[in-house]
Amino acid sequence: MILKILMITYTSKKCCDCLCSVLSYPELKPIQSINAHPSNCICIKFDPAGRYFATGSADALVSLWDVEELVCVRCFSRLDWPVRTLSFSHDGKMLASASEDHFIDIAEVETGEKLWEVQCDSPTFTVAWHPKRPLLAYACDDKEGKYDNNREAGTVKLFGLPNDS
């Protein structure tokens, strides 16, 4: 089964039951519904090749789904707080996930193995891979105590530069 384009929405029919609805685009007609997580889903990303999509949830789990079969291939459970952000690398081989934990988990998509744990001083709410290189940009909630809290400020950090390990 090959879907042209699909849109995924999340609804919670009852507490601790997050339903993933796959809709056709642009008609928005229901194609299939699947139980995705036992709590609210917060973020979703598709890999660049279109083979997988990943969902991050308030249950602190990241699920990797096969787009054609609409089945969960594997779960990543290294975070302790609700997953706030996800990003696939340009080649689709790595998946970065972050939360209020003070680290970013970078996993190999095909095996689920942890490749890196990027340490942070505060919660991370945004991660994004470079479109052509294994370089990860991320932004943390690190304003408190370091900057004037009355002004809007932020810091973008990079992981994957030659000196990183």
Automatic annotation (TrEMBL):
Keywords linked to the UniProt accession: Repeat, WD repeat
Location of the Anaphase-promoting complex subunit 4-like WD40 domain: 80-130
GO biological process, any: mRNA export from nucleus
Pfam families (UniProt xref): ANAPC4_WD40, WD40
Keyword Repeat carried by entry: yes
Family matches, as SUPFAM superfamilies: WD40 repeat-like (SSF50978)
Each WD repeat, start to end: 34-68
A GO CC term assigned to this protein in UniProt: THO complex part of transcription export complex
Family: Belongs to the THOC3 family.
Identification of the protein by name: Anaphase-promoting complex subunit 4-like WD40 domain-containing protein
Lineage start: Eukaryota, Metazoa, Chordata, Craniata, Vertebrata
